[in-house]
């Protein structure tokens, strides 16, 4: 047995030391360093603050172990607070102040007034309905949230492992390692009722128990950080803001099942998440929390990171494992299940980022505690990425069973620009839409399933009265069609046909029969596809057909959709692409197009009825639909 | 040593850094592409040779994943997000505006001066600040067609100064 880098006693000393160090910090400034705030310029704020503090003779400390003495400020990079649109965010502890929209020009004043003078700068606080909010958690956006997974995100230094330890980190792992056996850990997870947060909602404990029972020389723990839903960023928030919670959850899964190798598969578009995870892994290895014979227990665990390469289908379990193996990421027929033959055909625990991030707190506080949050069949919380036509967009975490109305109105602040609510799409391209009549539905796995929707991974797009729901269905079908891996015919060809029909309907060229064709095609694709991508690809179409059939009818019968036209679009011929073939002119029923042969043609918008005939006829793609503002 | 030889040598170094292990092929291609923006034919052949697998196999992995490009790309890769949140906040006009600014026609993605390649991406995880886009992985938030074009113009100007 190799010698251990950190004994259990040393770990306890490290815990006490970290706690003391954190408690001794007098003044802490946390600059949000999540993707959103960085894009808004938060790193410039960080640099300016640092330089300006130094000029004023303040001792700027970055690492937890640095002690700056009396005149010191601890400057940290935090994870995402979830309310990126009011960023860049800067919070100041222990004064409990959250400053919003902070720019480099504000730094001098922050140092002068707040850091040195203890005064609050009203201008930089969050304001709503004439009221200023100093504390983050008093802001309506946060008030109804219940943060377990996102608890420390925004409140602690995402790159400092000692701070994670100071906040109780890795003690659940220690408990699992020394005070519990595999069976007990699996039972605790089962009893907690934790269900997979990646979309399916499969009981995590049952999955772990299957892997634990499997006899094998090697077993694997894999974390799905592919987050493919185009409009969701919960897992990104967790990986960037609290990477150690994911690592600790995976370590516990390792202890529980006897697995010794861990893989985290991260979406290619999340370079910052990869960076934070890499730092976290390196620091955990350095301390001896990852590696051989951890804390002298005899348990070893090694962690690897794989970056995705832009294929949505790789979020599917068997595609993901084959991508880690360096192959094309195509799903395979099941069984065998991943728990029996997963990565390299060995028993594998595969869970989502958020699922793992829940684990340490369950082990630490017990299954009963976890069950006290959420509903009977869906305990705990769920994170959602609230986006679209809603006043407050961002990451929210609420107890399962919270109603849509609470999320959209109380947390989200209602519909933007005083418009009316129309629908919300949950679960991205594999999900369905919910309408006004569902606003009081509790958000949990089973209630949503009953009405043909899913919790999914947690993307939640709010749509107002001006949205054309056929266009929404087309958007998602376009996405899935692009992402179909092509392995099976129903999905590959079926989604293409569906998309063609939807495009035709959008152009007001559809027929009534098209709606039946859509439905029957959708049923075939759902039944006959090999993997979840195909099996759920038609959900957006089916649910919009169910709840918004009248909008399809407006397109196919009236040949006029009030929402699409309300958006004001006109057609224009791009003279650079037009070859003057005259095809559009011959197809136009209104004689709205003029032009000489082999010369660029033009459309007279006053005569045009937007039938789209020219658009479909042009062999050179020279006709553009131009969206007008307003 | 000419540029192509230097590149192949660097490619070998990258493959070696992964211990010539087959399962690391995706990471190897990602690292090579991060430096050279695309995977040339010679690169794919080199990977096949060093990993001891057929060129066809390497090619099939490279073509499966959307992020791998087998064509040369511009110095700056501009990706306009067309994820759900960005789409509903009008990302399409940004893409169209940039296409026009870069004078891209038909299937062309890279500008004539080889400075920019224009692509789309489904969600950058900056949805609250939609519409978003990246230039060589740096995220820019709350874009409009005008501000996007201004960013590119800025880069063009800087490049012109550097080359002068
Ligand atoms: C096409 C497709 C894409 C998926 N994408 C993801 C994803 O991005 N993230 C994720 O965690 N699960 C995704 N899943 C679900 C996974 O297959 C798997 O069920 C999940 O990672 C298991 O973890 P959980 O039980 O903790 O949710 C996807 C499934 C399908 C069919
Ligand atoms: S359903 Fe679609 S994505 Fe899934 S295996 Fe078949 S073709 Fe590929
Ligand atoms: S959309 Fe129809 S009416 Fe308008 S120019 Fe084209 S063909 Fe003519
Ligand atoms: S069909 Fe296209 S190329 Fe031909 S004249 Fe019309 S716009 Fe020009
Ligand atoms: S990145 Fe700062 S709040 Fe989200
Ligand atoms: S949809 Fe564009 S960043 Fe998420």
Annotated CATH topology of the largest domain in chain A: Rossmann fold
Largest sheet of chain A: 5 strands, mixed
Shape of chain B: globular
Output the CATH topology of the largest domain in chain B: Glutaredoxin
- Cα-to-Cα separation, first versus last residue of chain A: 70 Å
CATH architecture of the largest domain in chain B: 3-Layer(aba) Sandwich
Beta-strand portion of chain B reads: 5-15%
CATH superfamily of the largest domain in chain A: NADH-ubiquinone oxidoreductase 51kDa subunit
Short description:
Chain A is of the alpha/beta class.
Can you tag this structure with a few keywords?
heterodimer; A: 630 residues; alpha/beta; Glutaredoxin; Rossmann fold; Ubiquitin-like (UB roll); 5-stranded mixed beta sheet; 20 strands; 40% helix; globular; B: 164 residues; alpha+beta; 50% helix; binds iron/sulfur cluster; binds FE2/S2 (inorganic) cluster
Topology (elements, then pairings):
The complex is a heterodimer of chains A (630) and B (164).
Chain A: H1 8-24, E1 28-32, H2 35-39, H3 42-55, E2 59-61, E3 72-78, E4 90-93, E5 97-99, H4 107-116, E6 126-128, E7 131-133, H5 140-143, H6 161-166, H7 171-179, H8 182-192, H9 204-213, E8 220-225, H10 234-241, H11 243-257, E9 261-266, H12 271-287, E10 302-307, H13 317-324, E11 348-352, H14 353-365, H15 367-371, E12 381-388, E13 394-399, H16 404-411, E14 421-426, E15 432-435, H17 445-450, E16 459-464, H18 469-483, H19 489-506, H20 512-528, H21 532-536, H22 539-547, H23 549-556, H24 562-566, E17 569-573, H25 583-587, E18 593-594, E19 602-603, H26 613-617, E20 623-627
Parallel strand pairs in A: 1-3, 2-3, 8-9, 8-11, 9-10, 12-16
Antiparallel strand pairs in A: 1-4, 4-5, 6-7, 12-13, 14-15, 14-16, 17-20, 18-19
Chain B: H1 3-17, H2 25-36, H3 41-51, H4 55-64, E1 76-81, H5 84-88, H6 92-101, E2 116-121, E3 133-135, E4 138-140, H7 145-163
Parallel strand pairs in B: 1-2
Antiparallel strand pairs in B: 1-3, 3-4
Helix pairs in contact in B: 1-2, 1-3, 3-4, 6-7
